[in-house]
């Protein structure tokens, strides 16, 4: 069961699962916390997992005003504070990886380690073209289903489209009672449009793993490699044959990589 917590001027919907070392899961785009279901189910026997809906997503506050990635990072810090957690292993996916980077820069005492999945450190011209195409699709698609079909063509492998996974994901999204509006999607994209962390990443001082699908068309391997090269001591790993959502498509392998990485992170001083 989830519950709303107060983080600054917003209320964020949070679910906690399991016990052990604390893990904060940070979504990207318009995903609600349910996107992490395979991690909530697969890692909660060893870890205390905390997942939440970002502002403007799911059951969290839908503000009318613009916000920034710094605001989203402050929200994540607020979730940890309200849950009595941290420093935590932080996993950020896609835009959530950018939020996680900013969290480590703005609130370093809250972060024990970072896993950054399908992410980037600076938007480039290609990134703007990709996200810009999503924005006009969100405005002009003839239906929500049509938008999701077009959007998920970027996110998942050919295999996932052929074996029915994408169709099931679309049906779940259409049945979700708290859909993201096109206005919310625009505000979320605006927050990331010119936000860059790459030049500041050398300030991050926690163990960091950057994971990228070798066939990710949204955040290609060069994006993740640049992030790993900028963070002192960071490790870069490809997940062969995977696109933008390996945590959903190959959750067993994904969870195994996270668990192996976290076992290498030094214990907290007592």
From TrEMBL:
Gene3D superfamilies: alpha/beta hydrolase. InterPro entries: AB_hydrolase, AB_hydrolase_1, AB_hydrolase_fold, Epox_hydrolase-like. This is Alpha/beta fold hydrolase. Residues 23-249 form the AB hydrolase-1 domain. It holds the Pfam family Abhydrolase_1. GO terms for molecular function: hydrolase activity. It comes from the Bacteria. Keywords: Hydrolase, Oxidoreductase, Peroxidase.
